[in-house]
Amino acid sequence: MLHPATLLLSWLAFAVSLQWLTVAWVSVLAASCICLALLLATERSVNLLRRSRWLLLSLAVLYLFATPGEYLPGILGDIGLTLEGLHQGGEQIGRLLAMLASLALLHQSVGTQGLLAGFHSLLKPFPWRQTTVVRLMLVLEYVEQKQQVGWREWLSPIAQKQTMLEDTLVLARPRFGWRDGILALLVLVALMTLIVRP
């Protein structure tokens, strides 16, 4: 089994590489990731997509109505929708959906503890890694909750005390093997190739 930090680094490389792909590839990857996530990580992927619905809607509205270009024919063009906005909006939403679905798959495969341990390992050189991991734990806890919690409840001192009392964070420390080193090196080389190419 690969180290969670290696898998997380691979996911980050996948998310970055999406920026260089064409709309056709983004669409194929988004559809594939969503199908796999709904099949293998149903609850997590549905929760994550449901919690991201306003972000997806905002992206759609922003690109569809604020991108200049050729107006679509008929009533769609009359309300301000452009062909370029449809193209760019679909591309950005596809990228976001691919990232969210693949993140749900990663979360399902390594679990919350593995995800936190992976972030903890990747942030080792930084002095603020402890607080970052705790904040990530709270975000994951919020996403995993089945009931809706309003923002006022999250800011209340009682809710904060209950969270602090009920949860104790104990991170597993898996060993970083030679397979992890090879994969991490390959991922970094691929990323550098994408970034520096003309």
Task: Offer a concise description of the structure.
This protein has helices at about 5-15, 25-40, 40-50, 55-65, 75-80, 85-120, 130-145, 150-155, 155-165, 180-195. With about 200 residues, the chain is mostly helical.
Describe the protein in words.
This protein is an all-alpha fold. The protein has one domain. It is built from 10 helices and no strands. Helix 1 packs antiparallel against helix 6, helix 1 runs parallel beside helix 10 and helix 3 packs across helix 6. The protein is globular, with a radius of gyration of 20 Å. About 5% of the residues have low confidence.
Strand content: under 5%
Which secondary-structure class do the elements indicate?
mainly alpha
The whole-number mean of residue pLDDT values reads 81
Principal-axes shape call: globular
pLDDT < 50 stretches: 158-166
Termini gap: 36 Å
Strand runs, count: 0
Order of helical and strand elements: HHHHHHHHHH
Radius of gyration: 20 Å
Task: State the share of residues found in helices, binned by percent.
Answer: over 70%
Largest sheet: none
Fold topology:
Blueprint: H1 4-17, H2 23-40, H3 42-51, H4 53-66, H5 75-78, H6 83-122, H7 129-144, H8 151-155, H9 157-166, H10 178-196
Helix pairs in contact: 1-6, 1-10, 2-3, 2-6, 3-6, 4-6, 6-7
Primary descriptors:
10 helices, single chain, 0% strand, mainly alpha, 198 residues, globular
